[in-house]
Design goal:
Blueprint lengths: L1 H24 L11 H4 L26 H5 L5 H5 L7 H5 L9 E3 L5 E3 L24 E2 L16 E2 H16 L5 E4 L4 H15 L1 H7 L13 E5 L15 H9 L5 E5 L4 H4 L4 E7 L2 H10 L3 H12 L4
Antiparallel strand pairs: 1-2, 3-4, 5-6, 6-8, 7-8
The chain binds zinc ion.
Protein name: D-alanyl-D-alanine carboxypeptidase
Keywords: Carboxypeptidase, Hydrolase, Protease, Signal
InterPro entries: DD-CPase-like, VanY-like_core_dom, VanY/YodJ_core_dom, Zn_M74/Hedgehog-like
Amino acid sequence: MKKRTVVVVALGFAIAGGLLYQDAHSSKNSSAPIVGPSNSETSLPTDTPTEPPTETPTEPQTESPTKAPTESPTETPIELVKPPVKVSPAFALLADSLPSLTVKQDKKGAAIVTNTSSLYVLVNKQRNLPSDYEPKDLVVPDVPFSFSGNSPKKQMRKEAASALEKLFKAASEDGIKLKAVSGYRSYSTQKSIFESNVKRKGEKVANRTSARPGQSEHQTGLAMDISSASVSYGLEESFGDTKEGQWLAKYASEYGFIIRYPKGKEGITGYSYEPWHVRYVGKIVAKDVTRKEVTLEQYFEAAEEVIRPKA
Ligand SMILES: [Zn+2]
């Protein structure tokens, strides 16, 4: 019986260690369960002792974690209690792109991102692209567009464009007809759009529904607005209820895209729900973000906590 108790106690430590590890990966703002790559990364030893300890304990076993090691010095359950925190493959990709490492103040005090050409660049109302940033590898993806003729807004960065082609091909094979509406936008184009929206809708609404110049993901070349005939290729919330919008929400991450402005997250992203706006972050990160049901902001925050925890 005593031997069995020792094994049970050791298993207890293993589980406690696992919980500690998971806590380190949890996002502050999300109650979504952390699954997938994070869990598969657990650094618990795989050689959980299957043989009983050689030494017979002289005292009755207790549940006390401080006592167990002293009673069986040949075992090392103490290491199970504090496993080293490992970083998931998805978080590891973000190591050089953490928000705290990739921002500087300009002369006017605005926060400017420094990793402009990273696939993981975080651009939002707090993090501006430089006004002169223009991606170097813009191409026009071979997908159907909602309009004809040449336009700079047909462009995306090469890797994102190629991923978009795969996404559209898969949709088409599932009988889903999508069309691309708007991709790359320069700083000056975004400036015109925002100013025109302010005139038409007022500053408050314009701010919630369109980005100020420098704060648009479209300037990264990694975003595309997508719609369908069922909503007359409009960029509106009802697209999310169409079978095309639902297909996009379900499968975008398999091609490296996330629905960047999800429903109910306006307080975090700063933007209303946009079921049509997808952002390329690569498959590994897209799948992890989607599975955890978090915004990119929350995801980066969780990555910071693991990789660069505040002292
Ligand atoms: Zn958009």
